[in-house]
Design a protein that fits this description.
single chain; 220 residues; alpha/beta; Rossmann fold; Double Stranded RNA Binding Domain; five-stranded parallel sheet; two-stranded antiparallel ribbon; 7 strands
Length: 220
């Protein structure tokens, strides 16, 4: 199977998870982090789901019904009942709704790759099912390569971009500034907490008042 790689915008979309166990927890929390409006249907829920306090996750303690698919963007069949999961997939197919079956990726419309998240940085790894062990190994390598400093870096870059757009700078000038910033090895400086060097670079490129601490703390 050769998959088409895509990053999906689920913000404010209604996404359904059928199954309240460990797998359902992962699916629900992942969708919620991406801004989806999540409904979880199950006859029982894990403690993690019940105690999660997630405002955008609605728990419905009951059996799945076909009508649950109404106005749903995508669905995860994540129960411990293979027959029920397959039935959910068939119902979704009739409604032209994408469905992922937790215990049968080969029968799903899409799969979830191994993910490394650092704020706005999302690295996805898939071996198209050929070797989950290798995908896991590559994910761990990426986790070592991209530390938490990359989350701060992207926050900084986003705020710089916003500042430049507000000032009406020329797009070509933007490109030169960002290329220069990338060449300055900012992640290492952020990881080391070297604000003096960071301030020096930012002031040189953006002008006085462009301190690292000020730019990072700005709301995006």
């Amino acid at each position: 199977m050769k998959y088409y790689p895509i990053f999906l915008d689920v913000k404010n979309r209604v996404c359904l998870v059928v199954g309240g166990g460990e797998v359902g927890v992962r699916k629900a929390f992942g969708l919620e982090r991406s801004g989806a409006r999540v409904r979880v249907i199950s006859k029982k829920f894990s403690h993690e789901l019940e105690a999660g306090g997630k405002k955008r996750i609605q728990l419905q303690c009951r059996a799945y019904e076909k009508s649950d698919l109404e106005n749903v963007f995508l669905v995860f069949a994540a129960t411990d009942n293979a027959q029920l999961n397959r039935m959910i997939q068939k119902d979704a197919e009739k409604e032209n709704i994408l469905c992922n079956i937790a215990d049968a990726p080969d029968q799903s419309d899409f799969i979830l790759p191994s993910i490394v998240e650092r704020g706005d940085l999302v690295c996805a790894v898939s071996t198209s099912g050929s070797s989950p062990a290798l995908a896991k190994k590559i994910r761990k390598d990426l986790e070592s390569m991209f530390g938490p400093e990359y989350s701060v870096l992207l926050m900084l870059m986003g705020n710089i971009r916003k500042k430049l757009l507000e000032q009406g700078h020329d797009p070509n000038s933007h490109k030169k500034i960002f290329n220069t910033l990338i060449e300055k090895n900012l992640p290492a400086l952020i990881a080391a907490g070297d604000e003096t060097s960071l301030d020096s670079i930012l002031i040189e490129l953006l002008g006085r008042g462009s301190s690292y601490r000020r730019l990072v703390s700005q709301e995006q």
